[in-house]
Design brief:
- It is built from 4 helices and 8 strands, in the order E-E-H-H-E-E-E-H-E-H-E-E.
- It is globular and about 45 Å long.
- It has an 8-stranded mixed beta sheet with strand order 1-2-3-4-5-6-8-7, sandwiched between helices.
- The longest helix is centred in the N-terminal third of the chain and has 17 residues.
- With 188 residues, the chain is an alpha+beta fold.
- It binds coenzyme A (COA).
- Coenzyme A binds next to strand 5, helix 3 and helix 4.
């Protein structure tokens, strides 16, 4: 793979770029304290702006430590310059040229095609510029928005792993759906 790091990307309505210190307030308001956007993740525990600050500082540290190997985009809306979401990529298995992608958006901006726009751009960048062979993504079976988004962007649903998770949203046991997109032009 030809690692490039968090390169600035643009779509019609969005700028995808590295996090900056100036994003703390807007990101906290739009994303940090948005309970709906965290309905499916157990990972983040955000109460105060200090929690969001910590997340952003960790990103800044990663950019410094691994400039070409950290892929963490903040999503900025061109129309008002608010930062409204993020896309992150983990290099899961370098030897297999495989990466895992994750994303989330402020619920204020749900269902406007924004993540389709952002994710399509990042997937294109990973496949064509970084030369990733396969991108994987996972979604809980009750996260219909994420499942439909992945299908819309061209991911294939490879498998459903039964009863892998407990839904944060409902407290019920759910399946984990695993998706992938394979680079047809992969050069090896
Ligand atoms: C998943 C998520 C990123 C989708 O972002 P979005 O910008 O609202 O998605 P889009 O508007 O681009 O929609 C893409 C497709 O997903 C589907 N979709 C989106 N929201 C949906 C919903 N609430 N119900 C059913 N389908 C939905 C639709 O098929 C839609 O295409 P269409 O509008 O042409 O029918 C957003 O809901 C989110 O951030 N959720 C919380 C975080 C999260 O779950 N992250 C993923 C963890 S695996």
């Amino acid at each position: 793979m030809n690692h490039l790091g968090t390169v600035r990307l643009e779509t019609e309505r969005l700028i995808l770029r590295k996090f900056e210190e100036k994003d703390i307030e807007s990101f906290h308001e739009n994303w940090g304290i948005d309970a709906k956007t965290h309905e499916h993740d157990w990972y983040y525990k955000i109460n105060t702006i200090e929690d969001t600050k910590k997340i952003i500082y960790e990103m800044l540290e990663r950019y410094n430590m691994f400039p070409l190997h950290s892929y963490k985009w903040v999503i900025e809306l061109k129309s008002n310059h608010e930062v409204i979401g993020n896309i992150g990529v983990n290099i899961f298995a370098e030897q297999h040229q495989l990466v895992e992608i994750g994303y989330s958006l402020s619920s204020k901006y749900f269902r406007q095609g924004l993540m389709t726009e952002a994710l399509t751009k990042v997937v294109d960048f990973l496949l064509n510029d970084v030369g990733v062979r396969i991108i994987v993504a996972n979604a809980d079976s009750d996260n219909i928005a994420s499942i439909n988004l992945l299908k819309k962007v061209g991911f294939n649903m490879d498998a459903t792993l039964p009863e892998r998770k407990v839904s944060k949203k409902s407290g019920k046991v759910v399946d984990s759906c695993t998706f992938s997109i394979i680079n047809k032009n992969f050069k090896g």
